[in-house]
Amino acid sequence: MVIRWFTFILGAALLQSLSALSPVPIPEDEWTEYWRMLRDPAYRLPTTTRPSRYVVSLTPYFNNVTPPIEPFTFDGVASIYIRPTQANVNEIVMHCNDLRIQTLTVSLNNQQIGLVNDTYECEPVYSFLRIRTTEPLQMDSEYVVSVTYTGRLQTNMRGFYRSWYRDSSGFRWMATTQFQPGHAREAFPCYDEPSFKALFDITINREADFSPSISNMPIRSNETLSNGRIAETFYTTPLTSSYLVAFIVSHYRQVSTNNNINRPFDIYARENAGRTGDWALEIGELLLDAMENYTNIPYYNMTENINMKQAAIPDFSAGAMENWGLLTYREAFILYDPQNSNNFYRQRVANIVSHEVAHMWFGNLVTCAWWDNLWLNEGFARFYQYYLTQSVAPELGYDIRFIVEQLQTSMLSDSVDSAHALTNPAVNSPSSVSAHFSTITYARGASVLRMTQHLLGEETFVKGLRKYLNNRKFDVAEPNHLFEALDEAAVEDQALTQYNNITIDAYFRSWSEKAGHPLLTVSINQATGEMIVTQSRWERDTGVSSFPSLWEIPITWTRAGAPDFNNLKPSQILTEQVTTIQRGTQGLEWVIFNKQESGYYKVNYDQNNWILLTRALRHYTQRIIIHELNRAQIVDDVFVLARAGVMTYDRAFNILSFLKIEDAYGPWIAAITGFNFVAGRLAYNSSNLQRLQDEIINLSTGITQRLGYTDSGSDPFMDGLLRMYVMTFLCNNGHTECMAAAKQNFDSWRSGNFVPANMRPWVYCSGLRQGTAEDFDYFWNRFLNEELASEIVVMIQAAGCTLNQASLERFLNAIVDGNNTIRPQDLSTAWSSAISGNEENAMRMFNWLRSNINQVINNLGSAATPISQIASRLRTEAQISEFQAWLDQNQQLLGAAYNTGIQGITTTRRNLEWAQGRTTEFVKYFDTGYLDEEIEDIPGTGEGGDGEDGVPDSANIINLSIIALITTVAINLIA
Ligand SMILES: [Zn+2]
Predict the structure, then answer these.
(1) Long-range contacts of residues 613-622, Cβ cutoff 8 Å, at least 24 apart
(2) DSSP-assigned states of every residue in 259-295
(3) How far apart are the C-alpha atoms of 725 and 748, rounded to whole Å?
(4) Digit-coded pLDDT (tens) for 877-925
(5) Which of 299, 658, 665, 934 would you call most buried, defined as having the most Cβ atoms within 10 angstroms of its Cβ?
(6) Measured in angstroms, how far is the CA atom of residue 371 from the centroid of ligand 1?
(7) Which CATH class is domain 273-360?
(8) Annotated binding residues, as ranges?
(9) Which residues are annotated as a binding site for Zn(2+)?
(10) How far apart are CA 301 and CA 284, in angstroms?
(11) What are the helix and strand counts (H, E) for the chain?
């Protein structure tokens, strides 16, 4: 499954930023439920019986029914073939949820056996279906559990659920599925855990005027039933987990097809989708080929008759789902219109398709045994969605973007003491799950795999993975299966001999079973070349974690005198807290650790090295000697070090001053993320915020000079994407030329002219911000008539930018109108747009909420989302008091949202204090600008003055390391 990312950036954004271009929310209750299931053994099925095959026939009803059939229900008939796994089993337990069981029998050799009960229900909470037999089941015998039942077409985008859309015939109902993690049980009784793999024979009995139904496998046979319905039976699936089963009942058409009978690949969507499925087909075929070559396991041989289909679903809770042979997506993530979808969506379609295609091997063929090792599915899918796509579409820049979109984002979410490990997560509360589970599992997993790839070398890594897949195919896996296969390949290729024959098992466990990640503090004696490297667990607010930890860190480094950023094979593995490394040269020379940010760790240096790096970065020719990814690393590390107070902001901004001549993608995206965080914190004081914005505009000289303000249509892909992000950021920060360009293009768009898709996010937003109520009305009418999902999302993201109060209220009213003006899947994007469009929006939204609180609660169930958003954007004590008073007055009405609001206020107060405490550092830099600091005294280097011995700053760092070491020892003793 693909879920959202960038959410951590979003939380910190002052105004709409690039993060706003990444939707896909997961409802909080989904994570809570997922979490409960994961931790509590009471939710687990016994393994005393196992299924081998399901034969399921479903008859769905929409609104066209006659009593006693109820609309939006379905009839089901299921035969489940099972065997006991041990002697004396007299209870069969499987899952069912929200199904009404009508009849249930169990047979052996076509003879019904005795059952204790004659009525059955899906037990609440654990959703178990318990079938007690009068006699124990016989070993080595196959039983058939036959069930007839009715179910409901759900409305919450889970299970077997209903959705709607409009095509040239008007309004259409449809039904589709989303079963991960545990919703197959809402469609048929089943062993709804990943380790119970079985074969599935699905039949759908559809109304005659519907299109042929779609499922994992192609249709094997069909017949017309006496009631006029068409029964379509699909070929038997491969041996699969229940969460990977899927079916769609709709009026869909094949909108794109490769017409290849040997390797069939088709795109399904509503019939008016035009040619927007072509890109997903083109890139999908390339990716499927690439993955077959990579794994050496052909997809089309996984089982007989298998084909590949992708379908665009109007209402979809996740981003996409890897059902075997039937990948399902939100429309915006698969339907791409080259004229009207921007570059974000071009790459997003490609990499989400890549993610799902990779799952056919990592996830479907070999499945995590339980959800606590979900990273075995998702870490790989996230990894390949970048690096597999990079191999077939290098112009889309996935190697650059992995660093800023995945690695840096996951390190940020991973650097809190409550973070959990990849395996056996030990998160403390359900609420921390929704905040951390997704990013850590997906992005951290992918980042550690990338580090392992470079440790082993590509060939050995691939060899090991092929062993893993072949050993575990059509089965489930635990992490040790992966480690054993990689170790076997490593021994064959002698890939780890240079590291004292460390094993992948030992190395990987230090990354998968521990939470957090290390900071390396590097202190260099420039005179002797001796480098002292200290590792400690990083914590983002204080710099020091309360839970010290050591990792086995494969390191890479290079130096100014012989820069080599391309060899990513680690020079050694650090296992100790403090390690001394010889640079091998004497005299002043910068070093950079973590080449291309290939390792999963952050780096801080002593002052002298930072000064040397800053000078190089500010130099036109020396700057580009440093790899773009390391420039992005420096920007990110510096912002993060400053946030924690390990580096002062004046020093951080001194280093970041090189951005003025920087014009590359990686460093700028890292900078936008960092500046958005800082701007969010400086927003409590408008004059400080203004000075920050002046500095941002000052630093944007190089990048705006290179990119300009207009999409040329012939730009390299990455430039079009970067311009979209940079202009969104600069317009939001009051950049005059950006705003003028936005206004001019907005007016031109209002006059009916075409505006390139890449420009629309900032042209719409800044145009509305500078525009009138009439401008908003025009914009809103265009929105109401828009059919392209990616454009709909872009427009929702811009709608909150209006500064007209009545227009903002029109937008807010639409969010809660209960008429699907904004689909449920887009609601969180809409709220986020409404709150973050302008600084003024928070209080305007609060005033609106006071008058509309009942409608919000009635139509959305809770006011938690707007309340938490308003709380996070209050700027003064007066605003906080006013908001708190309102919360108190309405405590009863607000329910759980009351606590959300109070917690939000606490965080805001803390941030306000933080800002007050750190202001002098910012002001210091704003007053002086860049200062060329002097290198501290280094004997024998010709630098420095009065010959005091030692290297003061380095010495301080060493002292700090020693203090950290003592603290660690003390805490370990206590533990
Ligand atoms: Zn996935």
Answers:
(1) 613/655, 614/654, 614/655, 614/657, 614/658, 614/933, 615/932, 616/560, 616/590, 617/655, 617/658, 617/662, 618/657, 618/658, 618/661, 618/930, 620/661
(2) --SSS-EEEEE-TT-TTTTHHHHHHHHHHHHHHHHHH
(3) 21
(4) 999 999 999 999 999 999 999 999 999 999 999 999 999 999 999 999 9
(5) 658
(6) 12
(7) alpha beta
(8) 355, 359, 378
(9) 355, 359, 378
(10) 17
(11) 32, 29
CATH number for region 20-29+372-512: 1.10.390.10
pLDDT at 503 over 90: yes
Contacts of 736 (CB under 8 A, 6+ apart): none
Q: How far is 260 from 809, CA to CA, in rounded Å?
A: 52
The one-letter amino acid code at 52 reads S
Q: How far is the CA of 439 from the centre of ligand 1 (A)?
A: 12
User: For position 41, what pLDDT does the model report?
Assistant: 82
Per residue, the 3-state secondary structure of 345-356, as one string, reads: HHHHHHHHHHHH
d(CA 830, CA 728): 17
Asked if residues 376 and 477 have their Cβ atoms less than 8 Å apart, the reply is yes
CA of 667 from ligand 1 middle (Å) equals 28
* CA–CA distance, 150 with 152 (Å, rounded to integer): 7
CATH 3.40.50.720 assigned to 518-622+942-974? no
Cα(380) to ligand 1 centroid in Å equals 9
Report long-range pairs for 905-911 (Cβ below 8 Å, ≥24 apart).
Answer: 905/871, 905/874, 905/880, 907/871, 907/872, 908/871, 908/872, 908/873, 908/874, 908/880, 909/880, 911/680, 911/681, 911/684
Catalytic positions, written as ranges: 356
Can you tell me the mean pLDDT for 196-210?
98
pLDDT one-digit tens code per residue, 44-78: 899 999 999 999 999 999 999 999 999 999 999 99
Tell me the whole-structure pTM to 2 decimals: 0.91
**Ranges in the chain annotated CATH 2.60.40.1910:** 518-622+942-974
> Cα dihedral sign for 878, 879, 884, 885?
positive
